[in-house]
Amino acid sequence: MLQGTLTQLVLASCNGSATLRNLGGLASVILLIFALLYRVLCIPVAPSPQKDHSPPRLQLPSWKVTRFFFEKRFDFIKDGFRATSSSIYQTRLFQHAAIVLSGDEGRQVFFKEKGLCLYDTFSIMMGSSAAQFDPHQVGGVVKRMASIQRPDNLQKLIPLILSECQRKMGTWGRERILDPCSSLHEVAFHLVMAIASFDIANDAALSARLKSLVDTVDSITNPYSTWFPWLPGPALFQKFFASMQIYWIIQAAIRTRKRSGIKRDDMLQQMIDEGDGTIRIFGCMLGLSLAGARATGTIVTWLIMHLSSDPTWSLNVQEEIKTFISTHTSSSSPLSGNALIQALSEIPLTAWESQTPNLDFCIRETLRTSQPYTAVRKNTGPDLTIGAYVIPSGSLVVYPFLDTALDPKYYSEPTRWDPSRVLKKDTPFIGWGAGTHACKGQRLATLSMKLMVAYAFTQFDITMVDREGKKINRVPVPEWNDPATCRPKEECGIKFAEK
Ligand code: HEM
């Protein structure tokens, strides 16, 4: 999910600006640091909204706003609506005027208006002048993601994804209690790495190091120091140096591949063959890890947690998978290990995409309830109006997805996970975003999650347990203030016991 501020840095890195293209490796990175410092210290302050049509102002100092935005985003945004008694309010975020939207009109304007630009927020959120975005350049990353998801490519990825599931889940032994914040995220990361680079995925130590660097880049920490909002805090430098190390890993992988003369069937090979430069390959690899792996890890974790504790849906989905496998394979007895991987791999992509309706309902409901994503855009002009209010050109515009997802007008008892919800035609669903910036990895993400669930539920009995390891028959509430992993509010584990 393009849902970490650092995804932005990644895409920024691959905008292929003249400066970056001309400078190589380390030199460009050092230049970036200076550029970044210059940008942070000289960041322009957007004009304040016109007084007469301004939305009500949230009375909170801007350093507190920035801090709460990183530490308690969901509560902060919700409390803001309450404190201003308004569905739209203004505040200051990253030294910019920021307008926070909610409600139907707010959502429609947010996703429809062409002037609201995602890429222009990158430099502001990151404090980096390296991210002066040209959306057409970012198109390179999006184009690459489209090519990974061509049906012939996706079909080829099925055995690869399943083998990675087998490899990672095989290390859990006969019984394992998994941490909901990390274990399935690791599997998702390795799936993504296997798609991106054969060599990195096959080097356990390297890929573990890469995961830890990506986690640093992706951590939701405030990049600005709290006491001096114009000063970059240590987190910014940590993230920056982690990105540099990732860059070097990718650079080495490119060099090794070219020198070896061995062709592999992965994204790295495709990009080398098409003459993409190191910066763009780095951007795509990191973009895939940040935009794809984390979101897939979070959603599949909650999906498995819900399925393991909801007897009706657990049965529906497990029966569906059994019937699905027996319809498409010749074997009449239950399969496991390599035979299972082989059988599942031979099922056509079109069947995976169209013949598991119960699993589709469960994925949709999990996208709704377990994705505390807040989208930010910059209004690149002209001024916009929502009701009586003006959103001035130059301001940031903030929209929390949970405003739609938890709206009782559309979803009765909104916090209840209920895949059987019958949605009326006009019910808004923004689990994959909407408009110009809707998710570009939806097909790959859905397929990966289906394969993980099919493999996991065929191989293991899965139950939710409390901190003492005792079975519980419910799923804890998600911590919506944690946009990174959306961890459960209570300590709990997911128990995988081999069948
Ligand atoms: C379950 C997993 C995923 C979820 C829930 C998810 C969700 C989203 C959402 C909500 C957005 C819109 C962001 C916004 O409006 O600000 C988005 C954008 C995006 N996603 Fe995903 N995503 C997932 C997986 C992936 C994967 C696997 C990839 C890569 C193959 C990917 C690539 C992207 C890209 C490139 C964008 C930005 C599109 C643009 O700016 O035009 N996502 N995603």
Could you describe the 3D structure shown?
This protein is 54% helix and 10% strand. With 499 residues, the protein is α+β, with helices and mostly antiparallel strands. Helix 9 (151-170) packs antiparallel against helix 17, helix 13 packs across helix 15 (278-309) and helix 15 (278-309) crosses helix 16 (311-328). Mean pLDDT is 84; it is low at 1-50 and 127-136. The protein binds protoporphyrin IX containing FE (HEM). The site of protoporphyrin IX containing FE (HEM) has 24 residues, from helix 8, helix 15 and helix 21.
Kindly summarize this structure in a few lines.
The protein contains 21 helices and 11 strands. It has helices at 5-13, 18-22, 25-41, 62-71, 73-84, 103-112, 122-126, 135-148, 151-170, 183-196, 198-202, 204-218, 234-260, 267-273, 278-309, 311-328, 337-345, 349-354, 357-369, 402-405, 442-459; strands at 88-93, 96-101, 116-117, 175-178, 374-379, 384-386, 389-391, 396-400, 460-466, 471-472, 492-498.
- Radius of gyration (CA) equals 23 Å
Please give the domain count: 2
Helix-strand category: alpha+beta
Distinct small molecules: protoporphyrin IX containing FE
Shape: globular
> How much is the average pLDDT?
84
Residue share in β-strands: 5-15%
Structure summary, number of beta strands: 11
Give the proportion of residues in helices.
40-55%
Q: Report on the biggest sheet.
A: 5 strands, mixed
CATH superfamily annotation of the largest domain: Cytochrome P450
Low-confidence stretches: 1-50, 127-136
Strand order of the largest sheet: 1-2-8-5-3
Number of helices: 21
CATH architectural category of the largest domain: Orthogonal Bundle
- The CATH class of the largest domain turns out to be Mainly Alpha
